[in-house]
Amino acid sequence: MKKDIGKTFTIGILTSGGDAPGMNAAIRAVTRAAIANDMRVMAIYRGYEGLINDEVREFKTEDVSGIIQRGGTILKTARSKEFMTPEGRKKAFKVMQKRGINALVVIGGNGSLTGARLFAQEYDIPCIGLPGTIDNDLSGTDSTIGYDTTLNTIMECVDKIRDTANSHERIFFVEVMGRDAGFLAQNSAIAAGAEAAIIPEDSTGADQLEHFIGRGIRKSKSSSIVIVSESPKCGAMYYAERVKKEYPEYDVRVSILGHLQRGGSPSAGDRILASRMGMGAIQALLDGQRNVMIGIRDDEIVYVPFSMAVKSDKPLKKDVIDALNTLSI
Predict the structure, then answer these.
(1) So what's the pLDDT on residue 229?
(2) Same domain, residue pair 166 and 154
(3) Any idea what the Cα angle at residue 224 is, between residues 220 and 230, rounded to 5°?
């Protein structure tokens, strides 16, 4: 049932952590859905750091015109060490009081929502999270804002690398983002027809490389592409060096895609997802919800408690791993 919050109700909205394609679509949806329900909207620039420093101004519907197709975030983003301290959060709360902000909508990933959860516990503030991260590593939602666009970006890059790999009969190790989650690596490998994906969810480590060499290159293929999740210890460079030492007969190259994965105009899927989730954030407040992340499951908007959303063990489905193993023979 819709709750009549009234015109005195003011929400703050910010983006935090790494940017993700579709964040602007989410900002647009939150702003317009709030205004449609007679709420005021205060835009907070540069994440929690901007909240601490009172980088705040009111948004009207025209402030979010023409942004749905833009990558990045018009609110800018930053990681705030000060907000990690009780003193920093106290400063942020005083700014919210000064600005008359009654609730906070936070668009970001694991760290951003963890901050929102702690802030809400300390100051009894309704906080609603939107999962804005290319990593797709938040639990309780089938997908996160930015994930689909990034998958498509990786696929397009690997398609181009494939041309060179085939022409020179090379093995390419392509490093993609994802932090501690292999969703980007595994699914982009399927989408791009790669021969293997080396992901953190597979704890066999070096065995992944041996398995790939044994079943792929030696049998029938003169060129191959392996997608590797970024890692400071076992990234693409590590595996390329191993091949050079252990299998010197192969010509090996490395391509680290880096931050180009974050950029670009969001896909239709991410624009729709961000728009639905943005509206869901306002509906959550109208429903009296607090301290939840807006997720999507089976194409339905759901409310996910922060404690569930930020846990670090979102599983990568076995059938996705099996699909790549079967299709890459």
Answers:
(1) 93
(2) yes
(3) 145
DSSP letters, 218-243, are TTT-S-EEEEEE--TTTSHHHHHHHH
Domain co-membership, 37 together with 108: yes
The whole-angstrom distance between residue 277's C-alpha and the CA centroid of its chain comes to 14
Show the domain range for 124: 10-146+266-309
Q: What Å distances lie between residue 327 and 185, 190, 324, CA to CA?
A: 15, 8, 5
* Active-site annotation, residues: 135
Helix axes 86-99 and 110-123, enclosed angle (nearest 10): 70
Q: Which pLDDT tens digit goes with each residue over 7-49?
A: 679 999 999 999 999 999 999 999 999 999 999 999 999 999 9
Element (H, E) at 311: none
Comparing C-alpha atoms, which of 27, 311, 323, 321 is closest to residue 141? 311
Q: What is the pTM of this model?
A: 0.93
Beta carbons within 8 Å of 124's beta carbon, 6+ residues apart: none
| pLDDT of amino acid 206 | 46
Q: Is 270 exposed, middle or buried (0-12, 13-18, 19+ CB in 10 A)?
A: buried
**Whether residue 237 sits in one domain with residue 133:** no
d(CA 250, CA 296): 44
Do both 210 and 141 map to the same domain?
Answer: no
CATH code, domain carrying 190:
3.40.50.460
CB atoms within 10 A of CB 300: 9
